[in-house]
Write a structure and sequence with these properties.
single chain, 223 residues, Tscrpt_reg_LuxR_C, Sig_transdc_resp-reg_C-effctor
Length: 223
């Protein structure tokens, strides 16, 4: 079954562009695109998409409020707890928005100038229950962990291999899976396998937690 998506953004050009990018993928289907928060909530209720691409600044309710309401619905209606997965896509990368969105239940935060490949990867990651945050935002947030590197990071269940460390270092410095594969001259499936192994060793929930561990330990900076 393809990944079903609803797009919510008040800019027609953005909706059209996102739809074209996503519908070019054989495993993604756009069910609807809407212009405001109220229509987004209605579309989610009506269509039950796997992923909701959601702008922050749009007519009431805004994207953060939509995220909050859907999280509240999931808490009161367990049968909908895993649908939809929310990916915020916005022009504004203010830290307060990032924290509010992720703490509110969103599983991704991308900027509208992200590459088509990153948009597609963000949708796929969300559908798989993972999290993807724009590399520039990830770096800014995670670099704050560098001053405490090595002090509180948990140890992996078994040591990472040299290749796994290379993959994690690239991930922590903002590379997508495809970019890591190109940089290390390996296949995309090999990168995914390494990350799955690392995730298991760290008991991490997603790639953001892997990147955070790399900064905490100093691995991201060569420590």
């Amino acid at each position: 079954m393809p990944i079903s998506v609803v797009i919510a953004d008040d800019q027609e050009m953005v909706r059209t562009g996102f739809r074209m990018i996503l519908e070019s993928q054989p495993d993604i289907e756009v069910l609807d695109d809407v212009t405001d928060g109220a229509a987004a909530l209605e579309a989610v209720e009506r269509l039950q998409p796997d992923v909701l691409l959601l702008d922050i600044r749009m007519p009431e309710p805004d994207g953060l409020e939509v995220t909050r309401r859907l999280a509240e619905r999931a808490a009161t209606h367990p049968e909908h707890h895993d649908r939809p997965r929310i990916v915020i896509v916005t022009t504004f990368d203010l830290d307060e928005y990032v924290h509010a969105a992720l703490h509110g239940g969103a599983c991704g935060f991308l900027l509208k100038d992200a590459s088509p490949a990153l948009l597609v990867e963000g949708v796929r990651a969300a559908a798989a229950g993972d999290a993807l945050v724009s590399p520039a935002i990830t770096l800014r947030l995670l670099r704050t962990m560098a001053p405490t590197a090595g002090r509180s990071a948990k140890a992996p269940s078994e040591p990472l291999t040299d290749r796994e460390e290379q993959v994690v270092r690239a991930l922590a410095t903002g590379r997508t899976n495809a970019e890591i594969a190109d940089e290390l001259f390996v296949s995309l499936s090999t990168v995914k396998t390494h990350l799955a192994n690392v995730q298991a060793k760290l008991a991490a929930r997603n790639r953001v937690e892997i990147a955070a561990w790399a900064w905490e330990t100093g691995l991201a900076t060569g420590g």
